[in-house]
């Protein structure tokens, strides 16, 4: 069996095709195709409130490519989820309707809460009992925070703070204050809070960090990595550090969000599992097939 997950974010759109493996009842997904394309929908939406005609055309072209790839791989089922930019766009629903009419593909506009839930479904397997975790998921348009006591999620909240939105200067100071207050209220006197970072930017940033034997990085290392990256221009990040252009211009903005959340939670350690929204979508596709 083959399934696919498509995540249309504010910065980029990703598709992963996986085969479903069943080892004596233990289900896992083996990646057989992964495609990422920088649509940059957040650039349109966070500045003008809608997605421009040219961007809509790129969405349709990209989904056509994804559709052909799924046909070649003989995918049994797939799910498309769109997050912050498309769900906030004035013409988001109209674009989804046109995609459905022209391509026969359904785009699901998911809320920040649903996004957090889908990521939670895969993250929870990485957690240990008797530990407190603050999960920080930074996208192009929003940040989802989840607080865990062991494997149990106690509370979560979505904030309109994201790497692209921050780069565009479209993050209201009040939103920063609300995120700060939420962390203080929910973390309060807890000690030894471990941060979990998900998202493409923190995965790339982690490549520059020294980790301990458990794969954890100290917040001081995170700050050092931020300072290291700040020495390079966007062109140098692309040519010397071999970053994608759409990563090179936002990674420092994303790192500011992760660092701020950790500092407010008094968290000194972070780990970054190789998981994200696309993995949560994949799991939901499989569960839908089962039911």
From TrEMBL:
InterPro entries registered for this protein in UniProt: ATPase_NBD, GppA/Ppx_hydrolase, Ppx_GppA_N
Domain Ppx/GppA phosphatase N-terminal residues, every copy: 28-285
Name of the protein in question: Phosphatase
GO molecular function, one term: pyrophosphatase activity
Short name of any one Pfam family annotated for the protein: Ppx-GppA
């Amino acid at each position: 069996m083959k399934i696919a997950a498509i995540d249309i974010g504010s910065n980029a759109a990703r598709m992963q095709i996986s085969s479903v493996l069943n080892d004596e009842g233990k289900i896992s997904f083996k990646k057989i195709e992964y495609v990422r394309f920088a649509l940059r929908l957040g650039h349109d939406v966070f500045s003008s409130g809608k997605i421009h005609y040219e961007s809509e055309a790129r969405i349709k072209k990209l989904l056509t490519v994804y559709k052909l790839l799924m046909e070649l791989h003989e995918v049994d089922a797939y799910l498309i989820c769109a997050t912050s930019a498309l769900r906030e766009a004035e013409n988001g629903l109209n674009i989804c309707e046109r995609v459905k009419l022209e391509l026969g593909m359904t785009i699901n506009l998911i809320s920040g809460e649903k996004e957090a839930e889908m990521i939670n479904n895969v993250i929870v397997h990485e957690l240990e009992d008797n530990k407190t975790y603050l999960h920080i998921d930074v996208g192009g348009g929003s940040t989802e925070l989840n607080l865990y006591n062991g494997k149990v999620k106690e509370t979560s909240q979505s904030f309109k703070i994201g790497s692209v939105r921050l780069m565009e200067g479209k993050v209201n100071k009040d939103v920063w204050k609300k995120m700060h207050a939420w962390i203080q209220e929910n973390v309060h006197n807890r000690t030894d809070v471990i941060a979990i970072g998900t998202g493409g930017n923190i995965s790339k940033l982690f490549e520059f960090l020294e980790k301990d034997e458990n794969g954890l990085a100290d917040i001081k290392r995170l700050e050092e990595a931020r300072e290291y990256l700040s020495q390079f221009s966007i062109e140098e990040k692309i040519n010397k550090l071999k970053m994608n252009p759409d990563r090179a211009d936002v990674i420092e903005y994303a790192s500011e969000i992760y660092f701020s959340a950790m500092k407010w939670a008094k968290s000194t350690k972070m780990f970054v599992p190789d998981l994200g929204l696309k993995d949560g979508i994949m799991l939901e596709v499989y569960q839908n097939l089962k039911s």
